[in-house]
Amino acid sequence: MQTLLAALLIRAGQVVTTDRLITEIWGVAPPRTAMGALHVHVSKLRKELTAFGAVDPVVTRPSGYSLELGRNKLDLHDFLELVDEARLLMREGRHAEVLDRTGRASRMCAGTVVGDCCGGPMITAFSALVTATRLECVGMEAAANSALGRYGEVISLLSPVVVENPLHEPFAEQLMRALHRAHRRADALKVYDTTRAVLQAELGLEPCRYVRDLRDAILAG
Fold it and tell me: Which domain holds residue 208?
């Protein structure tokens, strides 16, 4: 039922076909009883949501089901709106306002995207999209702090992120630059060495040109 709810929430206000819901819940080889089991899951979900005060939350449509939020709004929608605002403010160079939007967005979208449930292609694609948007939000926050000369904030923000995303070279570049500007040259070069080692081990590649150029500039002082 958790996977069913996640799938309907992702497409809130839109019809999700029964075929797609079956694939999300049971994969590409569903049991012969999948259609009947889906109806049972929907019935249980309706009861659960109604118990929380929702009115006609799951609507049956000719081709499937839709989850109607009414006047309610998902935190996800607010998160995406804040990120959109941050993108615009970043282009305009309004860095303090960028930090306001990215900070609020990060607090709003903490933790795992869809809890512990495992889904099919729709839920997987959605999780990947939200994860990428979160990383973009982190990048904007780091860039805004750097533009304001807050290199300590950049270092605190990106140090764990670089460890968790060792193949994300833009984060390594931002962290190297902040460390160098904070007069931590050795630490900046260590980030480069670690990034290079992971890229070689995982992909057989050298760091991209702009990261190598930054390393050379740091070495040259």
Answer: 149-221
The rounded distance, in Å, linking the Cα atoms of 72 and 68 is 9
CATH number at residue 200: 1.25.40.10
CB 175 within 8 A of CB 163: no
CATH code, 53: 1.10.10.10
Report helix, strand or coil for 58: strand
What pTM was estimated for this model as a whole?
Answer: 0.84
Residue position matching structure tokens 């819901």:
21
- Identify the pLDDT of residue 208: 95
The amino acid present at 1, given as its one-letter code, is M
The DSSP result for 101-136, as a single string, is HHHHHHHHT-S-SSTT----HHHHHHHHHHHHHHHH
Count how many domains the chain has.
Answer: 3
- Using alpha carbons, select from 2, 20, 13, 35 the residue that is nearest to residue 122: 20
pLDDT digits (tens, 9 = 90+) for 51-78: 877 777 899 999 999 998 877 677 888 9
Whether 153 and 143 map to the same domain: the answer is no
What are the residue ranges in the chain where pLDDT is below 70? 72, 111-118
157 & 142 share domain: no
pLDDT given for residue 83 in this prediction: 96
